[in-house]
Sequence to fold (306 residues):
Amino acid sequence: MIVILGTGGTIAGTAKTASDGVGYTAAQLSVEDLLAAVPALSGQQLEAHQVAQLDSKDMDFATWQRLANAVQQQLDRPDVAGIVITHGTDTLEETAYFLHRVLAPAKPVVLTAAMRPATALAPDGPQNLFDAVQVAVEPDARGVVIAFAGRVHDAVQVRKTHSYRVDAFESVDGGLVARVEEGAVRLVGRWPMGKALGLARIAAPSERWPRVEIVMNHAGADGAVVRALWASGIDGLVAAGTGNGTLSRGLDAALREAQAGGVRVVRSTRCDAGPVMELPGLLPSAGALSPVKARIELILALLAES
Fold:
């Protein structure tokens, strides 16, 4: 049994005309509608549930909490071999990393999405959903991955790198797990493994989760945004630095002031790939995590301390 959990997104979006690939409304079709559009899946043993119905740019903590609980509930069923989650592309990498860190499942949890709405002349959602199910039934598959445009990505390193193309996601630093070719999964890397933090880590009401924001280094960055955020009562800050997590003098000074005042601070990079080195005298590094994933990591760390 493969369980399909729907959360909305472009894959469930519709537009007024088939030629409109950007002026659509996301999250209009149910997960059952999405399955009906893929006749090739009719022979599979599938079960569908609608967990949420939103545009993933509006993804929030409450939905993450509800989704993680729903995924764990299905994973606990002995008759369930894997799970597929339909999602929007905007925050797909964030949801995947969140589930990876909280659940780190031994069974496959495969997220998929689309860049074109379901009403497009050539929608990419049906193929992506078909591929995701093939990954979920793969006997050796495990962990949280993203199946998209014929490739399977590790949740830790995948990033959305293009605003429009149907192959909008890339794996960096060797994060590509497999390719799906004519319904067959060809392993080119390794299935992800990790240590689950568990649902208890996120049990607090979502409105009480720590507030962590992202600031970016850029020409003329003076730290004013950091001081404004600090004054508003934030709990943590991720600095998307230039290059190897470098920060302007003004931004670095403001971040150190916030850190001294009790705000947790880590450095990431605005570059598309590569780690931030941990060096003496510098603010703590987020390692190879992108700014949005470093933010999730910091939220989870702060939840453990609350």
